[in-house]
Amino acid sequence: MAEGERQTPSDSSEDAPLTTQNFIIPKKEIHTVPDMGKWKRSQAIEKLVVLLNTLDRWIDETPPVDQPSRFGNKAYRTWYARLDQEAENLVATVVPPHLAAAVPEVAVYLKESVGNSTRIDYGTGHEAAFAAFLCCLCKIGVLRVDDQIAIVFKVFNRYLEVMRKLQKTYRMEPAGSQGVWGLDDFQFLPFIWGSSQLIDHPYLEPRHFVDEKAVSENHKDYMFLECILFITEMKTGPFAEHSNQLWNISAVPSWSKVNQGLIRMYKAECLEKFPVIQHFKFGSLLPIHPVTSSC
């Protein structure tokens, strides 16, 4: 839950006495990465992981085909056609029956989140669609705001793993890549969330993410470093040449400054760029109408 918000139980009246509330002094519980296991994961989060595991299994069941072109393996279209057909059934496994009417709308964002089957490419616009998919599930009450750590580090992380497998297996082209001037060919959000995960880390500093040893020893625990590892697996040559923007970011003195800069960059390079947003779909859950009241 965001700072300053207070969640009111749906069955309580507005004039219910505060004395019925058991107050405790808030404290940090997530001290180290292994402590993540303490986090209460809702059943809906487990079902989302199962959904993503299904997409992963379909990749294994749809091997690449032999073709002259090295990139854009056409087997991806077979994989995507299966998702296109099954998306609503998959989403229905996550959404309770009384919310079944929302399934067709929410399923659109799932289909939009895995890449384009015509161009066989993937980019930050598709990644944003998965964030929208999760946002829709929050808006209809399937996911709760207080599930946010698990939503990012369990569900979104599993999504990243499946997308990386798609990219590797079918040699997908980056959608709208800016080459060396872009942050990354495929992702952006995990760099934002990953840098926030590293704020106030006792010894890992931004300069360490260009250190191969530091990345290999810590990538399993930190989303940002996992992104760096994937880049080095996919690209050859000096890091400063193939990922110049990230190389420059490694000189920033603190993770909080990195995080703030990435948020500004995401707003400018993704959310305010027509080539990205032109493909974004709006519905009743994520309308394009002007905001009239605070959420």
From TrEMBL:
<dbReference type="GO" id="GO:0046872">
    <property type="term" value="F:metal ion binding"/>
</dbReference>
<protein>
    <recommendedName>
        <fullName>Serine/threonine-protein phosphatase 2A activator</fullName>
        <ecNumber>5.2.1.8</ecNumber>
    </recommendedName>
</protein>
<keyword id="KW-0007">Acetylation</keyword>
<feature type="region of interest" description="Disordered">
    <location>
        <begin position="1"/>
        <end position="21"/>
    </location>
</feature>
<keyword id="KW-0067">ATP-binding</keyword>
<comment type="function">
    <text>PPIases accelerate the folding of proteins. It catalyzes the cis-trans isomerization of proline imidic peptide bonds in oligopeptides. Acts as a regulatory subunit for serine/threonine-protein phosphatase 2A (PP2A). Modulates PP2A activity or substrate specificity, probably by inducing a conformational change in the catalytic subunit, a proposed direct target of the PPIase. Can reactivate inactive phosphatase PP2A-phosphatase methylesterase complexes (PP2A(i)) in presence of ATP and Mg(2+).</text>
</comment>
<keyword id="KW-0460">Magnesium</keyword>
<dbReference type="Pfam" id="PF03095">
    <property type="entry name" value="PTPA"/>
</dbReference>
<dbReference type="GO" id="GO:0003755">
    <property type="term" value="F:peptidyl-prolyl cis-trans isomerase activity"/>
</dbReference>
<dbReference type="GO" id="GO:0005634">
    <property type="term" value="C:nucleus"/>
</dbReference>
<dbReference type="GO" id="GO:0005737">
    <property type="term" value="C:cytoplasm"/>
</dbReference>
<keyword id="KW-0479">Metal-binding</keyword>
<dbReference type="InterPro" id="IPR037218">
    <property type="entry name" value="PTPA_sf"/>
</dbReference>
<dbReference type="GO" id="GO:0007052">
    <property type="term" value="P:mitotic spindle organization"/>
</dbReference>
<dbReference type="InterPro" id="IPR004327">
    <property type="entry name" value="Phstyr_phstse_ac"/>
</dbReference>
<keyword id="KW-0697">Rotamase</keyword>
<keyword id="KW-0413">Isomerase</keyword>
<dbReference type="GO" id="GO:0008160">
    <property type="term" value="F:protein tyrosine phosphatase activator activity"/>
</dbReference>
<keyword id="KW-0547">Nucleotide-binding</keyword>
<dbReference type="GO" id="GO:0000159">
    <property type="term" value="C:protein phosphatase type 2A complex"/>
</dbReference>
<keyword id="KW-0539">Nucleus</keyword>
<dbReference type="InterPro" id="IPR043170">
    <property type="entry name" value="PTPA_C_lid"/>
</dbReference>
<keyword id="KW-0963">Cytoplasm</keyword>
<comment type="similarity">
    <text>Belongs to the PTPA-type PPIase family.</text>
</comment>
<dbReference type="GO" id="GO:0005524">
    <property type="term" value="F:ATP binding"/>
</dbReference>
